[in-house]
Amino acid sequence: MAVSDPTHAAVRHATTRDCFLALREADGPLTVAEIAAGTGLSRPTVDSVLRDLAATGLVVTAPPGAGGQPGRPARRIALDPGSASVAALDIGSRTVRCVRADASGAILSRSAVPVAGGGIADAVLAAVRETGGAPRSLGVSVPGIIGPDGRIAHSLVVPELSGHDLAGTLHDRLGCEVVVENDIKLAAYAERHLGASAQDIVFVQIGHRISVAVIVGGEILQGSHRLAGELGAQRGMRWTPSSQRGRLVWSTGDEARPLLERAAAGDAAARAELEEFCAQIAPRLAGLLLAVDPEVVVIGGGVSRAGETLLAPLRRALHHQLMTPQHPEVVAARRPGDGSLLGALGRAFEHGSAALIGVPGVPPPWHRLNPALREDHP
User: Fold this and answer.
1) Which residue, 328, 321, 146, 314, is CA-closest to 230?
2) Residue 117: φ, ψ to 5°
């Protein structure tokens, strides 16, 4: 909707957003009077906004309701969630996952495509096709550093992605809005909306590697060059003396699960190894905590499923490093298996708001995305 006056445009965007949200959150069709009452807008304003929304195809006139009131029945308006879809991709070294939702946030389909001889590009397009074709907006989670120009500057996990303008390529191939973001930042973004009720969060992903993302004021902290939280980009940086090129190495090898299971069962040697691990990573994390001063530290990744077996010694090690009486809470991620995919779907709704309804700034339907996405693919 082209409006030349910036002030008028801002007001129009706000009224359109409010009307759309009223329809999206309603249990059924609403009359113009009900939308006006719910938003505090005048009926002529609501009527005008609904005409604009109808042009997007997302809003339709519903059949008259059954009732015994005499006279002409009130016009009823409803969201047509099936008129547009939003999708998300989570790219890994072995598998590309995709999930698709309708305009209301209801999950429509999912796919998981192995990366085979055709490489990442073929797997990405196949994953999107398997969920139903090109969406109106697509969010993409990648294991790599996103440069200021939007290209993937570097990826240890999927070297094939390094230097690639993935957003541009997918936009050209699929013809939809595309937003690409680092997987750990997207997991932190999802936790911000679905997990800890905090504005300032340090998110620590502990899996085969350790990665960090920061949320400040409710937003992903990017920094001047999109390097905020990329502690692994420091030359010579090692989280533990035994780590190899960023990968964690345990007494049980690359996999921590056997060690965590032994520690949970009370094995003294396994518990001592976890205590030492936490003591080794705590100084680096404590420096970040003092720089950011978050309300909460969220531990994600597969290792976070160990719960207090890991959190208790890490909490002790972090608190030992801090000479202040105020300590951030240390909790496990709510969505350790699908946080990045869920964050990518949220960003697709947020980034594609203008493409979906004609105005920016419409928040994602988090309350529908949260229970709908199950951790089927750890």
Assistant:
1) 146
2) -60, -30
Query: Domains plus CATH for the chain?
Result: 6-79 (1.10.10.10), 84-186+337-372 (3.30.420.40), 196-332 (3.30.420.40)
Q: Which amino acid is at 349?
A: F
Backbone angles phi, psi at 159, to 5 degrees: -55, -25
Note if the pTM is more than 0.85.
Answer: yes
Average pLDDT by stretches of 10, the chain with 378 residues: 69 93 94 95 94 90 68 83 95 95 94 89 94 95 94 91 94 95 96 87 94 95 93 89 88 92 96 96 95 95 92 96 93 91 96 90 88 50
**From CA 128, how far away is CA 126, in angstroms rounded?**
5
Q: What tokens were used for 261?
A: 């299971």
CB atoms within 10 A of CB 28: 8
Residue with tokens 């030992």: 320
d(CA 252, CA 232): 23
- CA 35 – CA 27 distance, rounded (Å): 13
- The Cα–Cα gap between 87 and 341 comes to 10
